[in-house]
Amino acid sequence: MVASILITGHTGFVGTNLVRALQDDFVLYGLDIAADNALAGDVSAAAGAGHSTEEPAASGNGAGAKMPLLPSGNTFSWDQLDSLPDADAIIHLAGMAHDTANVSAPEEYFEVNLGLTKRIFDHFLQSKATTFIFFSSVKAIADTVEGETLTEEHAPGPKTPYGQSKLAAERYILEQTMERKNDGTTERWNDGMMERMSGGTREQGNDGTKDRGNEGTGERGNDEAKERGNEGARARGNEGRGERGGVEGKKVYILRPVMIHGPGNKGNLNLLYKVVQKGIPWPLGAFHNQRSFLSINNLEYVIRQLIEKDITPGIYQVADDEPVSTNELIRLMAQSMNRKARIWNLPPGIIRGMARTGDLLHLPLNSERLKKLTESYIVSNTKIKNALGIEKMPTSATDGIIQTLKSFAN
After folding, report:
1. What is the structure's pLDDT at 202?
2. Which of 183, 342, 186, 173 minimizes the C-alpha distance to 253?
3. Would residue 35 count as lying in a domain?
4. Is residue 385 in a domain?
5. pLDDT number for residue 354
6. Residue 269 and residue 404 in contact, taking contact as beta carbons nearer than 8 Å
C-alpha cells in the first residue's frame, strides 16, 4: 500500500496540481529542480506535458496558480538525493521544456531529461519505493502522426532534441529493467512490460536516438551519455536484483501524455485564450485539424489509479477521449467570454509564408508554432483505459477545456 510519494518537479504546472490532488491522502515529498544551480536551460516540471505545447514539460512553472505547496521540511534539492526519506512511490515530472523558439542547445535537453531520469531511477532501484511513474511525452515517439491515430505500437521517430531526449530516458529505464537470458536475449522484469528482444532497445528502429538518443548531439554523443549513465549503474551492479537480474516487487510506468491543460497552465492554450480575449480574429480558420488534449482532472485520475490499484506496469499514452479542433477551441473560448467567435479563413499558403518569415525574424508566428496550431495529432488512449478497466475517462475533452478556460478567467 502506498502511503508516501516523492514528486520531482513538484513546483511545476502538473506538480502543483498533483500536490493539490494527493496531499490529503498521502505524505508527499518534493524534489525541486530549481534548487540545483548546476542545471542550465529552461527547466520546469514536465507537464506540462506539456506542456503548454503537446508535451508535459512545456507547460511552464505554474507561476500565478494558487496551488498549495509542500512544507519546507518535505522538500529537497537534487544535491540531497542520497539522503531523501523513504517513499513508497516516485513520480518523475522534472524535465526541460520543449522550446518552440528553438534557441536551446540539444545537449541541454539530454543533460536534463536523460541525466535527471538516470539519477532518480537509479535511486528508485536502490530504494524501498515500489512504484515509479515517469512522465515522458508522445513527442518521444512522433512529432507528426502518420495515419489517423497514434498508438503505443507506433515505431519511435522523434525529430527534435526534446523528443529524442525523452525517448533516451525511456530506453534507459527499460535497459535497467532487463534480465539477461542464457540464449542472449533479454526480458523485462515488469509483468506488463515483458518483451523478448534481441540485442535490447537500441535496435528499435531509425528514430534518431541511436545509443539512447544521443546521435545528432555532436561529440557528446554516445561516450558522454554512456559515461553519465553507466557509471552509476556499474557502481550499483546487481545489488538488490537477485539471481534473476530483475528487481522483485517493483512496478514501473512510462506515461506519454499529450498536451496537458488545467489551472496554472501557462503555455500555448493560455496564449490562444489571450488572443480571443483581445478580440483579435483567428486567421487560421482554413486549417481543419483534430488534436488530442489531456485535462489535468483525467491525468490526476490516472495517477491515482496507478498508485492505489494493481495496474499492469507498462508504457501508456494518456489523453482525453475526444480530439478537439483548433477552431472549436476558439469557439469555446469566445463562448466562455460571452462573445462571438471571430474566425477568418485566410489562404493557407499566405499563412505559411508569414510563418517562414517568422522563422527568419524570430517572430511569435513561426513554422513550429503554426504546425502545433494547425496539424492534426490524434492519440489513442485505449491501452490505458483497458488497463484501468474503464470505458471512458472521467472528464470529457470539452468539459475539461471549459474548466481550464474558467481558471483563465479567474
Report:
1. 38
2. 173
3. yes
4. no
5. 95
6. yes
Q: How many domains is the chain partitioned into structurally?
A: 1
pLDDT for 52 = 32
What backbone torsions phi and psi does residue 104 show, to the nearest 5 degrees?
Answer: -85, 140
Q: Which of 226, 338, 295 is nearest to 50 (CA)?
A: 295
Q: Is there a contact between 48 and 14 (Cβ–Cβ < 8 Å)?
A: yes
Average pLDDT per block of 10 residues along the chain, 410 residues long = 94 94 96 50 38 34 49 91 95 84 80 96 96 97 90 94 96 84 50 37 42 39 42 39 52 97 86 92 94 97 97 97 96 96 95 95 89 91 98 98 92
pTM: 0.79
Give 38: exposed, middle or buried? Use CB within 10 Å, 0-12, 13-18, 19+. Answer: exposed
Sign of the Cα torsion 193, 197, 200, 206 reads negative
The SS3 of residue 224 is helix
Residue 277 is assigned to a structural domain of this protein: no
Any idea what the Cα angle at residue 109 is, between residues 104 and 113, rounded to 5°? Answer: 150
Instruction: Using CB atoms within 10 Å of the CB of residue 66, give its burial: 0 to 12 exposed, 13 to 18 middle, 19+ buried.
Output: exposed
| Grid cell of 103 as nine digits | 534557441
Cell of 319: 489523453
- Chain center to CA of 14: 10
The pLDDT assigned to 102 comes to 60
Q: Could you tell me if residue 111 is inside a domain?
A: yes
Which structural domain range is residue 92 located in?
A: 4-253
What cell was used for 207?
528514430
Report helix, strand or coil for 319: coil
Beta bridge partners of residue 298, listed in sequence order: none
CATH code for the domain of 132: 3.40.50.720
